[in-house]
């Protein structure tokens, strides 16, 4: 048995990534492009989509608001026309949501976080399954968070959606297994990048401390005392699309250096 060969992702994969024009989504997209996959990303930001097109002309990039059902349907219409099928859905789109006490969070902030982080994952899975049943390597990868296994004070809308995504994944894994569609969730920890910088800044202001103090407090929560580079998340996504992961489904997989608490 050639174990190393089994670690190589399947060739010719058709991949759709929501929220894929920047951040973790872009890094995942670049990883799939590197192995020769046919990659389609969508993103709400026209600027991010334009920049993605310039960086990766071989991919398809579509501007779409994942909270809009009609726009999500349009993404899948384009997927059918461009790729004539789908093997892998990366359900990635999401926002950080508000930072604040539950008594200070508005209905609008709460509902927006739920709609983008959770309802959009339903919308994409809903449209993806009819395409995935035709694939030999069908897989849905939901992007959750370490906040999907730990409580997260002052970030309740975000944490609520990330826990719900794990429940969605577990349910779909059971529902779709007999149709040979694998479903897993990745739970990134504290990921390096501008988004985490903003989270640290907002939390520092809320606590009345400096950003450097907040950063150290953040690192002290992690057993390895370091943040996660987004490439680590992409690498796990690629592994899940290899023969070595053929029987991996229904799993919430943390890539977080062991965050002990939030």
TrEMBL record:
Source organism of this protein record: Pseudomonas azerbaijanorientalis
Signal peptide, first to last residue: none
Pfam families tied to this protein: adh_short_C2
Similarity comment: Belongs to the short-chain dehydrogenases/reductases (SDR) family.
Listed name of the protein: SDR family oxidoreductase
InterPro entries noted in UniProt: NAD(P)-bd_dom_sf, Sc_DH/Rdtase_CS, SDR_fam
Superkingdom as given in the UniProt entry: Bacteria
PANTHER family hit by this protein: SHORT-CHAIN DEHYDROGENASES/REDUCTASES FAMILY MEMBER (PTHR42760)
